[in-house]
Amino acid sequence: MRFANQRVVITGAAGVYGRELAAGFAAEGASLVLTDRDAGELAAAAPPGVPADRITLHAADLADDAALDALIAVATAGVTPHVLVNNAGIYPFIPLMEVTPAEYDRILGINMRAPFRLMQGIGRAMAAAGRGSIVNVTSAAAEVIRGNGVPYGASKCGLEFLTRAFALELGPSGVRVNSARPGFAEGSALVRMPAGYADAINSRSLLRRPIRQGEFAGAVMFLCSDQASYMTGSVLDVGGGGHINRREGAATSART
User: Fold this and answer.
1) What DSSP character marks residue 53?
2) Rounded to whole angstroms, how far apart are CA atoms 28 and 22?
3) pTM of the complete model
4) Which of 241 and 36 is assigned the larger pLDDT?
């Protein structure tokens, strides 16, 4: 029960990892503030069995500044959050030369600008309270370029930069800020995936398997717990080594 009596804010709570994170934190005693764009999907994603006084569902479009202001107000009302997980993100599959300005702006708006705003608003409250942990969900795409996901990769690269910047800003006040990169999970992209995409991504795992249920949530909860009390400005990769750049055909078997 590492998070008993703690308030945990999770964006993108109706997504694959959002549901996993909500269930994991709830199981360890946290009170949840969950947000996603669609109220119906958000309600369906709420962990079962959590008492009503330990969960707040707040639908919000993270592309809208007024909605972000309202979310910050809800999250900080009464009790300052102990944990913020910026999990929401979008990944349209668009060839680089076909990305429109509107698509580019929306991807960076959801994936990088919204976390920036939330880290300002909620991070300010955490700093005033003298404690808190923020985890930004990023991706190996921050350093592995994929031609049909360049704006997404740019947004995650930028979010890791912001992680370090907010770690510097908020650290003296007792607030830790880290990033965590999940492995690929089918269903995490709200668009039709290109044929063979899932197999291609999973094949990059050095462990020769996809990520398992709970592995990413466990890593995020570690970062938010007292077990990681001296970690800030870090990137924790939970992608089976898929982020390691290497030449095709390079040997990956252990040698003695």
Assistant:
1) G
2) 10
3) 0.92
4) 36
